[in-house]
Design a protein that fits this description.
Strands 2, 4, 5, 6, 9, 10 and 11 form a 7-stranded mixed beta sheet that branches. The chain contains no helices and 11 strands. The protein is mostly beta strands. The termini are far apart. Strand 9 (91-101) and strand 10 form a beta hairpin. The protein has strands at residues 3-7, 10-13, 18-25, 33-39, 46-51, 57-59, 67-72, 77-82, 91-101, 104-107, 115-120.
């Protein structure tokens, strides 16, 4: 029942940066753990990063050190700061709300349209 709207994607050169935003339509945003996913053409959707309701973060090895996930509970928004972008980061990026258990993320929200990130090499 949580609706999510992603924004901030675009076309950038390798080595550049983008900041993605995800706005959630819920009045209990602060109780959810939040995650960013991405799906490249011909590939499965993969978990990129998550942040718990307590602010604990986790990243996929492929983006560790380059991406930063954060949240602003007052704005019901989750962000993904992406630096040092590579061509292999090209994908549609999605966010979702859920819960983390033993390092696994369970999604509760509906998938939105996502936002396209294209990195030129």
């Amino acid at each position: 029942q949580v609706q999510l709207v992603e924004s901030g994607g675009g076309l950038v050169q390798a080595g550049g940066s983008l900041r993605l935003s995800c706005a959630a339509s819920t009045n209990i945003f602060s109780t959810y753990d939040m995650a960013w996913y991405r799906q490249a053409p011909g590939k499965e959707r993969e978990l990129v990063a998550f942040i718990t309701r307590f602010g604990i973060t986790n990243y996929a090895d492929s983006v560790k050190g380059r991406f930063t996930i954060s949240r602003d509970n007052a704005k019901n928004t989750v962000y993904l700061q992406m630096n040092s972008l590579k061509a292999e980061d090209t994908a549609v990026y999605y966010c979702n709300a859920g819960s983390v258990n033993s390092g696994n993320f369970r999604n509760f929200g509906s998938w939105g349209q996502g936002t396209q990130v294209t990195v030129s090499s």
